[in-house]
Write a structure and sequence with these properties.
Oligomer: homotetramer
Radius of gyration of chain A: 21 Å
Shape of chain A: globular
Structural class of chain A: alpha+beta
Order of helices and strands of chain A: EEEHEEEEHHEEHHEHEHEEEEEEEHH
Number of helices of chain A: 9
Number of strands of chain A: 18
Strand order of the largest sheet of chain A: 1-2-3-7-4
């Protein structure tokens, strides 16, 4: 299903080579002034064709707001945004040869032969453009509640950026990342990562990476035990982002070698607020925020589209075949995924805030 | 929220020290014969008090089926199961001292001072008992569709079990795990793990671990892109299991250092079916099953309850304090979590099967 | 599906002749003191076997609260209530002969031959007992927000009670109805109605009726346009009550002969509040409350169980047959339905209040 | 909330005087050929400005399909349709004077002063245009399952059309109604109704009516007891249609004066199928279809916009005021509502069919 959310409902639509991609965002509070220039900048951060490490398919990615916005403010009714597809070249796509690592085969198994296979159709990374639009709106709304979301590239191949300090990370550090074309904390590592991406591109190959995302300013008490846990909500959203294949909160898989003494975040009082000395649990206990930063990592697999010859099957003839995937592709999508993950996280935070009555207290 | 699912709806209730814990399972197909003895065995696998590496709180964990079951078969209407709490000792719990690593503080922030704090209340690991009951039912239903789910302890502290072979894992191997009190593939590693757990217990400490879970027999074409992806559904369920803090599918975080050439699972035909040579993508492309085994790992943090002195706050006086958590606790919950994860995975698989019309094709 | 609600989630379970019937109520705010005696009285109002105009099947209908209630208050976590079935006689029910007007045939078509047909199974009016329990809780919670719900029997056969004055109806009038065994505004009409019911019973027949329900104290601004309209929510709940086959809000079907001039409720100011002179629209404009009383009527069809010979089919032999429905039945269920409708309405009102952030403002 | 559905999810957006209105339809099966000309005709049936008894605001109501449609067939992914607003005149609308019978006041109470009040904004009857588009698609999809939906005007003011015969109504009769500009069974009554509408228009007034809708071809066994009942689903959708204030199934409010003997629809076998002699229960027992035609009536209140002087309040100054509603309005909307009700009913039928696995059996 293409809908998500408790208090906000998101409905996403479109195909890579269809008329348009878009999103309907229901449940946004009314009366929030939106900075359209800022939304445009967010769209540009994700947009393709901007540099040598992204796909040369250039798309303006201009969002046309169709509803829910009047006199510079949200109206409270559904906010619909649409992005026309302007630069599509469909000749590269052969229906019968399913591309390894892509959803071509599963798309046909799910939807039958009427599935729009061109450029990945509805499975295309292009569908993250409306998600970034929705997230850009959400970032502005949660800002009104004092919440800031930011993400950086933690790893590309062998190169690791400095990780967030889960206790000290603050809004200013996160906002700095918004300005960067290639968001890392340590620019020297960033240079090495970019050289690695170029190297992979030159070898007709691609490379994966890890994005780290942090949220500061979330009040304690949001979320729920079990199915409505903060981790459940964030992860259900993150695994909606194409290419994400793993997520860990706080110490994550490192918990496997920690003892309870190390892993428990002990409490103390500071300025009348309850804080924890460490933040291995990522600001979440029992599925509910405790007021410390929410920090998680998501792994992004290498771009599936590579120009090398690969073994596949011809699903019409039902026999083995070979394929070389042409077209215009990213040798790495981790840096673009970071923008999407940041945006998608803002949507989850907004849903959590509204679900716990934040609208009333604004 | 305590409800989950598209075609099956699960509603879980209860507190650790209340009258009962239970679950309502709506959407189970009618006419499925249930083996009640098998369900009892599943309950026993999770039940506390069975050995030296689990909590000595002994509970029969006998499920009373209240509805949805008639003449040995499911009726198709909601199946409700209830487990009475019989062995509760509430004297250990002090309302005002919130236990580090637990949901005491967040519970009070979410629900206010009327929250039932005794033994973790609704946040207690005890709530996984009804989940195992529901999963035991689901395991029998999905078996009718040819689907098998199994899990083992991949890691405790420094000790690693052999991992599943993501291509070769089969139903027989998974069913073998169901019979083991301490589910590992390599019993010698299992012995070391158990000694490590005892060692931590003796030091009034606890230890974390990783559970690996596999599903075989899922037909291709189940799931959806975006919010209904197989990964989104599994993860939203897994993060409902207390103490799970990370999940990765297939190569998971390893994708960060892989190239596209390595990561893509190339296709081939075998006996008229589409297969992949490797299975780094865990049987899932674009959120939809491709017919290969679904394999994932979930990390389980060390038990938060430890008898050592810890720093905390007194939330009534709003000042720093110290706490020693007494009561009867597990020095490691990974082996019990493995049973819960297996059960919970069966519920997700059932929902996926039914959501794609499996009921009609049975 | 047996779940309902946006902010509160209700999950209902049970069969007439199974072990128990019950309900899980998720989303109830924490810290609400519940008057258990009052809940008991509400259960008694619906309970069978109390007088000559109801079924002689006597059930204590004692609710056992399993969770979500601690130290006299709600905890905020799921509130589960269970009622054991104690007085069941299953011998009257013949699986193969489907009773006209009942769900026997459709139950078998929906669930197959494993459906629990005894006493209507899951379709039984007995399932309204947990609904009344949930509604009794909801009535106490909405009372804390100043909201009162009440219902009376508007019509039985040819006899009409006085209708509510949609502008003047107040909390006191509604609370008076709670005390009445046979809730009508005009007791003389009530007597005639009861004589009519006895007359039908003596003729081995049954009779239908209309229930009118009113809600006062709802603040303006609750609800939503389209699918979340107050009318959509109330009606989706009311048609969950067995035997309800129609609903009209305010002037209802009378609107067909009204002009716009007559139908529009003109506004005026009174004591700083916006009021309407008339209330043909039942306190709802565009799906959203306007602060005036919410008033609606629901029609309840005559009890389907009658002891006269009726034509039916034998669904095993697939041929025409005859049936006389024995057992212990109500000659009219309108008066018991009034209690259910009142309770169910309180649940909808609570969901509306919470969906619009009422929890925060209490 | 502006989303609806179990298996299909509908998300509606737009305002009367904004850029566009539209809808996202998720869950439509793939591979269904759509007759776009037929969809165009359906849009024309609802479109304004076609004759003297409708508003002179002429809108082409051309739907631009943005996604989910490829090579003449549905793809199975979300189908988005958008209709640009081309003929808007906003000068007539005064923000501070709330129009009686409209949602202006409740819109401001719900969404605050940022609500788009122009032409009713999101509450406008114009939002039914995307609903008719979605319904036109649904009509074609359910036709593939042998299901036909049709509606006629049963009543305008004092004039009654012939009612459907709930047992005999068939697909041919329903399809005939699709061709009529003013859908009635008896054209002479239709003439009188139209003269009555003109008479009300000339008096600067408006008039209400009743629409009767029937569905034939629904297989038995669809729907569910309680919250998923066929009646709950239809009614939750119908009360989303602006101006609908009541609904009754089959004998409806007439059940109040019927006995069980009269009301029960006795069964018999015909050509190997179970049928009922009468159809007072509208083809629904216990919330589930029994295979007989589904028949219901919905009342449509008179257009709220009338050019006569009415009493209202100025919500900025919070004092009594007067208003004359100018602009271009329908003196009766029942005939346009009939098209919307027919379309919306097709959406519910499609959801019911898919929810019960119909996709698999096609």
């Amino acid at each position: 299903m293409n809908t998500w959310g408790e208090k906000i409902k998101i409905s996403i639509f479109g195909e890579s080579h269809g008329a348009a991609v878009g999103i309907v965002l229901d449940g946004i509070p009314s009366g929030v002034e939106l900075d359209l220039e800022e939304i445009k900048r967010e769209m540009q951060r994700r947009a393709p064709g901007r540099n040598s490490i992204s796909t040369p398919r250039a798309e303006a990615d201009e969002v046309k707001i169709l509803s829910g916005f009047f006199d510079g403010k949200t109206t409270g009714t559904p906010l619909a945004g649409m992005i026309l597809n302007t630069n599509t070249i469909s000749k590269h796509y052969q229906k019968e040869l399913v591309r390894p690592g892509h959803a071509d085969y599963t798309g046909f198994m799910r939807y039958g032969m009427s599935h729009d296979y061109r450029g990945g159709g509805h499975f295309s990374g292009r569908l993250t453009a409306p998600l970034v639009f929705a997230g850009a709106v959400a970032k502005q709304v949660v800002a009104a509640y004092g919440v800031t979301v930011g993400a950086h590239i933690l790893r590309i191949g062998e190169f690791w950026d400095t990780a967030f300090d889960a206790v000290q990370v603050d809004a200013e550090q996160l906002r700095t990342l918004w300005q960067k074309e290639f968001p890392v904390l340590d620019w020297q590592t960033g240079d090495k990562m970019q050289r690695e991406i170029v190297r992979q591109r030159d070898q007709l190959n691609s490379i994966g990476g890890i994005v780290e995302c942090a949220v500061v300013g979330m009040p304690p008490g949001l979320g729920a035990p079990f199915f409505g846990s903060v981790e459940s909500r964030i992860s259900s959203m993150m695994f909606s982002v194409p290419a994400v294949k793993g997520i860990e909160f706080g110490a994550g898989f490192g918990f496997a070698e920690m003892t309870g003494k190390e892993a428990n975040d002990e409490f103390y009082m500071k300025d009348g607020c309850v804080k924890t000395y460490t933040n291995h649990n990522a600001g979440i206990n029992g599925g509910i925020t405790n007021g410390m930063p929410v920090v998680f990592k998501a792994v992004v697999k290498p771009t599936a589209s590579i120009a090398q010859k690969q073994r596949t099957v011809d699903i019409e003839k039902m026999k083995d075949a070979e394929i070389e995937v042409h077209g215009r592709h990213d040798p790495c999508i981790t840096h673009r995924a970071a923008v999407v993950i940041e945006a998608a996280t803002a949507l989850v935070m907004l849903d959590l805030l509204l679900d716990n009555g934040a609208e009333g207290i604004r």
